[in-house]
Design goal:
- There is one protein chain.
- The protein is α+β, with helices and mostly antiparallel strands and 207 residues long.
- The protein contains five helices and ten strands.
- The strands form three sheets. Strands 1, 2, 3, 4, 5 and 10 form a six-stranded antiparallel beta sheet that branches. It has a two-stranded antiparallel sheet with strand order 6-7. It has a two-stranded antiparallel ribbon with strand order 8-9.
- β6 and β7 (131-133) form a beta hairpin.
């Protein structure tokens, strides 16, 4: 990154907002309690943010846990959002959603009511304390890549140290055979598609 680009990025983070909407791709998962409800509420909360709107939601996948203690399977989705939040401010939103839904960080890779991770932020790479984009283990996790392909057609994994740029489908192909992942269906609605009479999570929206 050039000096000018670094200065521009630092100024943008100080303000906390970008001039125009940027597309970011999030991985959302749950393996405690009513997993489907947790996913839906997380999507609603993201969409309720005045600087962020949910643009697309993938199918729901049930996946075997990876790492950590013995625990129940996860339900996972990928969400494409259009946001004016910078990467760090978007991370703060993800953490706020997790806190709102009762996420407790006790055991690394342990069970959780909700997990909201930034997988990609347009084609940017970010390396800061507490935030790595692309997500540092994205290329190794089929449970994140497979739903991501649904909402990010044509998107590529940016080059990082030790790994060249590659397509998402190429990354999945390197993990074949893929096991322990089952599509459940499209049961998490876009917030604008709630049926009449239902009450999505309230929040402010930009006009």
């Amino acid at each position: 990154m050039t000096l000018r680009a670094r200065l521009r990025s630092a100024l943008r983070e100080r303000v906390g907002l970008t001039r125009v909407e940027r597309f970011a791709f999030l991985g959302v998962g749950s393996n405690i309690g009513d997993r489907m409800d947790h996913l839906q509420r997380a999507v609603d909360l993201l969409h309720a943010d005045e600087r962020t709107r949910v643009d697309a939601v993938s199918s729901v996948y049930e996946t075997a846990p990876v790492g950590g203690p013995q625990q129940d399977p996860f339900l996972n989705i990928s969400v494409r959002v259009a946001t004016r939040r910078t990467p760090l401010r978007l991370l703060a939103l993800c953490h706020a959603v997790e806190a709102r839904l009762g996420r407790v960080r006790e055991v690394r890779w342990g069970p959780r009511t909700i997990d909201v991770d930034i997988l990609l932020y347009d084609d940017e790479t970010v390396s800061r304390p507490g935030l790595e984009i692309p997500h540092p283990r994205l290329a190794e996790r089929a449970f994140a890549l497979i739903p991501l392909i649904e909402v990010a057609p044509g998107q590529r994994l940016p080059a990082t140290e030790g790994r060249p740029e590659q397509s998402l489908t190429a990354a999945v192909a390197k993990l074949a055979p893929v096991e322990g992942i089952t599509v459940v269906g499209s049961q998490v609605r876009h917030p604008d598609e709630h049926p009449a009479g239902s009450q999505p999570t309230p929040g402010r929206r930009n006009a």
